[in-house]
Specification:
single chain; about 800 residues; alpha+beta; Beta-galactosidase, Chain A, domain 5; Glycosyltransferase; ten-stranded antiparallel β-sheet; five-stranded antiparallel β-sheet; 20 helices; 32 strands; globular; binds beta-D-glucopyranose; glycosidase
Length: about 800
């Protein structure tokens, strides 16, 4: 499809760093586009599917509400299994037209002469221009604009302008709510039960409203959608002839209207969505009817929505000059992050879903990915990270149950979490390369606990929110610390503690070759992070002791014996080393077989699916020195080289940081990047040793979803952790920004390709503009804010940054 002179989007849009634009027909990638063209507001989101589309090979309309899950039982491979999934909600988009008595606009009945889709990220507006011809050569142009309101979180709206280009006549318009949906976005879940919803009620008010209520089968959540459809002709609202259409699971209206050639008709459809999880409502349908009755028409909704986006963009401004087109992917990442997690999410009980609210991959579960997401949010929307940490805190009782079931103390958060915080990791997952189910032992990734602890501490360091630390954070640190301490076993022979039977971040190793599935021992990542966590738990204990009297402890106070034990463990955990002195990923990694991975790559295209391919060949990644994703190197993602050195030395091992470049090289050569998080971690790690390569990897991470580099998986949702993590490389990786010891630290090292960087961050209540250009680093504290001067360390020199003050430091000074 070429440019079309009648298409407003072709005429007005050139390359723009705020706009995702598609004007070529490509059925193979339409599902991926639908993910990237999702509009949402952190409360709910709707994929960018066409309003006339139903789910088929190349389309998948999907709408998801944050935190709304349901559990279904399936029979697979002779086994009964239960899976909890985020639920695909009734489709509110359906809108189509026909000439009276003709064929409805569906993909098969019309020729798509021209189609152009533009997502304007500055305003959160998806615009579609479509020129179709029917079998009689009648050409009709549709201009559709769509939003999910960032100003009013329960509202979505779709405006359709219809112009009959070379004909005139009476047309029918059908606007509906379609509850005949199931979960079908992920092909590898094809064998699993998918029908989560039953439509329990439909209705209409005889004027312009129709509604549909559905209920999930086991979580018994009610979802109500009410749609209002108005028609305008010549700028005036008209009362078209209307009839209600009602089929099983679907309710809508058909409107009839006479239209002259070239004249335009505007259909203004708005929907209100409420669920029984919402607060401050009596009942979802009542709330939705009230909301839609008060809703303004599209243009006014758009004004309020754009203003809300404008405010968000001011907070989330990331300016960069690379001369290489990176601004567009940066905007895409910020935009989708905020559509999955926004200020509206802070009011919910929801976590950080791995695929955003953009698809059904990983069943919308919550993993450790928040480790990559929080740093960017902490500096801009700490009220949101606080709420996301409270999602964890509310699930402590489940986490305690899980630890107890393993015979441990404290609390163990699940590797995959959904509604109530029980372990949701499937026991078997489909291997498409082998055409069979494989056992999945990833629930041994207890390190998710360490991520929660890390996030608590960094939230506290960035915000100084002592109220949170005392009321929730400390308990999270103590309970995860307690679990880690009970997992560690003491070896009196060399006065060391071991942690056995776990999995590190690298999912290729769920055990040793002779005992797969039983976990590996002494993961360097797990043990070093555990030492750090126990030390921070002790710090939190001391801090609270200092600020609070005895009566404030509410049963949290730790005994001296426990504190001493934690201290001992945090100094005596075992870390293994390779003969060349490098930290060993886990005990015995160095004894595993080596293989020529370049040769493997030549045979199989890439290494991403290395684990699944090996299994299909009846081999196992457990046998090899290969990692799915950054594992040991995650330590350098989370800690500076100085901190890591101090941590290893605190464990009483000699460690020379000069060995770090060799360590990076060793593990990078063995990493397949089978997770999108891996490139983020590696780009970060390289930012200190090989900036040009780091930039190359960051560019790959920034373009990973846009170019669908993750093997087609973008059609099933975004990679939220990688999106936020890549922004954080710009924010913290290249500026050396860090918060520790009650100070802000900076040490900028931009890659040569990145000429300047300009960001606003909020540190302990103070907004600070941070700008790095080739000659200097400039910090400017916003004059507002009564915060005490922030302490900032820039290359070992400490500055006081008072409100309104500016600090300028030459880059090589
Ligand atoms: C990665 C995990 C990650 C999950 C969800 C997996 O492929 O190995 O580290 O948490 O995807 O993003």
């Amino acid at each position: 499809m070429g440019a079309d002179p009648g298409c407003e989007l072709c005429v007005s849009s050139g390359p723009d760093e705020w706009v995702l634009s598609y004007s070529d027909a490509d059925p193979a990638s339409e599902r991926t586009r639908e993910t990237l063209l999702t509009v949402g507001n952190g409360y709910f989101a709707t994929r960018g599917a066409a309003p006339e589309a139903t789910a088929d090979e190349s389309h998948y309309p999907g709408t998801y509400a944050a935190g709304l899950y349901n559990r279904l039982t399936s029979q697979v491979d002779g086994q009964t299994r239960e899976d909890e999934s985020i639920v695909n909600l009734p489709n509110w988009l359906p809108l189509t037209f026909r000439s009276l008595g003709g064929e409805w606009l569906v993909p098969e009945a019309f020729e798509r002469v021209h189609e152009h889709l533009v997502l304007d990220m500055r305003r959160g507006l998806l615009t579609r221009e479509l020129l179709v011809a029917d079998r009689n050569g009648r050409r009709t142009r549709l201009r559709q604009r769509r939003l999910v309101s960032m100003a009013a979180p329960h509202l979505g709206a779709l405006e359709t302008r219809i112009v009959l280009e070379n004909w005139s006549g009476r047309i029918e318009i059908r606007s509906a709510l379609d509850g005949r949906v199931s979960n079908g976005n992920v092909s590898s879940f094809g064998a699993l039960a998918a029908q989560h919803l039953t439509v329990t009620e439909t209705g209409c008010d005889g004027r312009d409203l129709v509604w549909l209520v559905a209920e999930t089968s086991s979580s018994k959540q009610r979802v109500a959608e009410v749609a209002r459809t108005l028609v305008y002709q010549g700028g005036h609202e008209v009362r078209a002839d209307r009839r209600t259409v009602s089929e099983a699971g679907l309710i809508g209206q058909e409107l009839e209207i006479d239209v002259g050639q070239g004249e335009d008709v505007v259909i203004d459809k708005a929907v209100a969505l409420f669920t029984s999880r919402d607060r401050a409502i009596a009942e979802p349908l009542v709330a939705a009817r009230e909301e839609i009755t008060d809703a303004s028409k599209f243009e006014d909704l758009l004004l309020a929505h754009s203003a809300a986006w404008d405010r968000l963009w001011q907070r989330f401004h990331v300016g960069l000059d690379d001369g290489d087109g990176s601004r567009l992917p940066v905007h895409v990442h910020v935009f989708h992050l905020l559509q999955a997690l926004s200020p509206h999410t802070a009011d919910l009980d929801a976590g950080v879903p791995a695929p955003g609210l953009h698809g059904e991959s990983y069943r919308g579960h919550i993993f450790w990915d928040e480790l990559f997401v929080f740093p960017f949010l902490n500096f801009r929307l700490p009220e949101l990270t606080r709420a996301l940490l409270r999602y964890r805190h509310r699930r402590l009782p489940q986490a305690r149950r899980r630890a107890a079931a393993l015979g441990m103390k404290g609390a163990l958060f699940p590797w995959e979490s959904g509604s109530d915080g029980r372990e949701e990791t499937p026991r078997a997952s489909w291997n498409p390369h082998a055409g069979r189910w494989r056992q999945d032992y990833s629930s041994r990734q207890y390190h998710v606990n360490l991520a929660v602890a890390y996030n608590v501490w960094h939230y506290w360091q960035t915000t100084a929110d002592f109220g949170f630390l005392a009321a929730y954070g400390a308990e999270l640190l103590f309970e995860t610390g307690r679990f880690a301490a009970s997992l560690a076993t003491y070896d009196p022979n060399d006065d060391r503690y071991d942690i056995r039977g776990v999995m590190g971040p690298d999912e290729f190793h769920d055990g040793y070759p002779d005992r797969p599935g039983q976990g590996i021992d002494n993961s360097a990542y797990v043990n070093i992070m555990t030492a750090w966590t126990l030390a921070r738990a002790r710090d939190a204990h001391e801090l609270i002791g200092k600020h609070h009297g005895d009566e404030m402890w509410q049963g949290l106070r730790l005994s001296d014996a426990e504190l001493q034990k934690w201290d001992h463990i945090s100094r005596r955990l075992r870390v293994c080393f390779l003969p060349n002195g490098l930290i060993e990923q886990f005990e015995g990694y160095g004894r595993l077989a080596e293989r020529d991975w370049d040769e493997f790559k030549r045979q199989h295209g890439d290494l991403k699916t290395l684990g699944l391919v090996l299994e299909a060949e009846n081999d196992s990644p457990n046998r090899y020195q290969a990692s799915k994703q950054a594992d040991v190197l995650m330590l350098l993602y989370l800690f500076t080289a100085e901190e890591l050195t101090a941590l290893v030395r605190q464990l009483n091992y000699p460690f020379d940081p000069a060995i770090i470049p060799q360590m990076i090289d060793y593990y990078m050569r063995r990493t397949s990047h089978g997770s999108s998080l891996s490139r983020v971690a590696h780009a970060w790690v390289l930012s200190r040793t090989d900036r040009s390569r780091s930039w190359e990897m960051l560019r790959a991470a920034l373009n990973s979803d846009i170019a669908d580099r993750e093997g087609g998986s973008t059609s099933e949702g975004i990679h939220l952790g990688a999106m936020a993590g890549s922004l954080d490389i710009l924010q913290r990786g290249y500026t050396g920004l860090d918060t520790r010891e009650d100070m802000l630290w900076l040490n900028p090292m931009l890659p040569d390709e990145l000429r300047s960087l300009d960001l606003d961050i909020r540190y302990r209540g103070q907004w600070i503009n941070l700008r790095v250009d080739p000659t200097k680093l400039t910090l400017h504290a916003h004059p507002g804010g009564a915060a005490p001067p922030s302490k900032v360390t820039i290359r070992e020199r400490v500055y006081d940054l008072a409100p309104g003050a500016t600090i300028e430091v030459p880059r090589n000074g």
